[in-house]
Design brief:
The chain is α/β, with parallel strands linked by helices. Helix content is 43%, strand content 13%. A seven-stranded mixed sheet has the order 2-10-9-8-7-3-4, with helices on both faces. It has a three-stranded antiparallel sheet with strand order 11-14-13. α2 crosses α9, α5 runs parallel beside α6 and α9 packs across α12. The termini are far apart. Bound molecules: pyridoxal-5'-phosphate (PLP). Pyridoxal-5'-phosphate binds next to α3. Pyridoxal-5'-phosphate (PLP) binds next to α3.
């Protein structure tokens, strides 16, 4: 049977087609996955049983018995957790549960952005956020970061510059608490300055806080949403990094008039109910104990990754020791082009994120790469980095010879 040809019927302007999934590479340093051993299975199984036995009949109605904003017990848990950990005062009705925080990005973008608009974003940023802006035809102005997060002097200059050109940015998108990919945490002083600048220029802040639970010492500055005296901060978060990404549960904290706009374009008639019910049952009892166990395991994997990089790449791999998260942002020598390293590394079984895909300034990202360490085992991390060093040496001549080990022996 010949198949029907849809090609001439496809809508114009579609992005390139997705690649067919052929399984995970042997050494997978991409994708923001979590640690499989740390998924709190027993408690999730019990939560699923308990909540279904008690409230399962509510599955007969769209939105359970909680309405379109999502399962009420989960929103109530979030309201008290956000107060306790991030200082955010919000009611459960100022929270909208989304299908992952990716949908939260789409909803915020959906109500604010049009083709030709300008937004401000960290120079290194989440690929999913950058891709969305490109697809929407939005101009992304990148602000450099240092060890304390987004640089406020550069932000002030960019805002002044845009103002002079008559451009009012639609928002300042930031991942202030364990930034993706740099792993930095925006200091409290800079948070004040960011809020001041945003207020002065009449630009809202879009705060993406999905990694804020994954800080090694558990200490985080208050959320921008909490610190703002004038509103103007939309806060989003996710259970992907703290529990499991396959659940697809994220959320938006904003005032009702904004959520009302977002609900009007949220076309899925509610996010998946079962995962919301399970989280709503699991979290009040177990979230606080689960997170430190998770971060201890992640920190151990990060140590393995940093040791392996030091051993295999020596001084050819530069990185800062992040305060939390699931990835390391690594600078390789200038002659390395990580977009060109990607394919031969993959052929050898190692998947990496090429830096240019994680930066507004592609040249800046050229010799950088993001390595996710949560999902690989300690052995896979060690072997994967050794393989990556071999491929990098073959393709670009660096590292010259397993640097630290050679030097240590000399
Ligand atoms: C900064 C940031 N925002 C949002 C997301 C989307 O995550 P999810 O849709 O799984 O909540 C990610 C995922 O890696 C991320 O790194």
């Amino acid at each position: 049977m010949t198949s029907f040809d849809f090609t001439p019927l496809l809508a114009p302007g579609l992005p390139p087609p997705a690649l067919k999934w052929t399984g995970f590479p042997k050494y997978n340093f991409t994708g923001g996955h979590n640690d499989a051993d740390q998924v709190p299975l027993d408690a999730l199984v019990k939560a699923a049983n308990d909540v279904l036995a008690r409230e399962g009949r509510n599955l007969a109605t769209y939105g359970l018995a909680s309405g379109p904003q999502g399962y009420k017990p989960l929103r109530e848990f979030l309201a008290q957790k956000l107060k306790r950990t991030a200082g955010i005062s919000c009611a459960a009705d100022e929270i909208l549960i989304t299908s992952g925080s990716l949908q939260a990005l789409d909803l915020v973008n959906g109500i604010l952005l049009s083709r030709g608009d300008t937004v401000i974003i960290e120079r290194e940023s989440y690929q999913g956020a950058l891709n969305r802006l490109t697809r929407l035809g939005v101009n992304a102005v990148g602000i450099p970061l240092d060890g304390e997060g987004m640089r406020m002097d550069a932000l002030a200059t960019a805002l002044d510059d845009l103002k002079r050109r008559g451009v009012r940015p639609k928002y300042i998108y930031t991942i202030p608490t364990v930034q993706n990919p740099t792993g930095t945490i925006l200091s409290e002083a800079r948070r004040h300055e960011l809020l001041r600048l945003a207020q002065q220029h009449g630009v809202p802040i879009f705060e993406d806080d999905c990694y804020s639970d994954l800080i090694w010492d558990g200490r985080r500055p208050p959320a921008l949403h909490a610190m703002s005296q004038h509103g103007g901060v939309i806060h989003i978060g996710s259970f992907s990094k703290s529990i499991a990404p396959a659940l697809r549960v994220g959320y938006i904290v904003a005032e009702w008039d904004l959520l009302a706009r977002m609900l009007a374009i949220k076309t899925d008639a509610g996010s998946g109910a079962l995962e919301q019910m399970v989280l709503g049952e699991f979290c009040p009892k177990h979230f606080d104990a689960h997170v430190p166990a998770l971060t201890r395991g992640l920190r151990a994997k990060l140590e393995t990754l940093m040791d392996a990089l030091n051993e295999q790449f020596g001084t050819a791999a530069e990185f800062d020791d992040p305060k939390g998260g699931i990835f390391l942002w690594v600078k390789l020598p200038d002659q390395v082009d990580t977009s060109k390293l990607y394919q031969p590394a993959l052929a050898a079984g190692v998947a990496i994120n090429p830096g240019p895909e994680w930066a507004t300034d592609k040249a800046y990202g050229k010799s950088r790469t993001r390595l996710c360490f949560a999902n690989a085992s300690h052995d896979e991390i060690r072997q994967g980095v050794a393989t990556l060093a071999e491929v990098c040496r073959r393709e670009f001549g660096v590292p010259a010879r397993i640097a630290n080990v050679e030097r240590a022996r000399a």
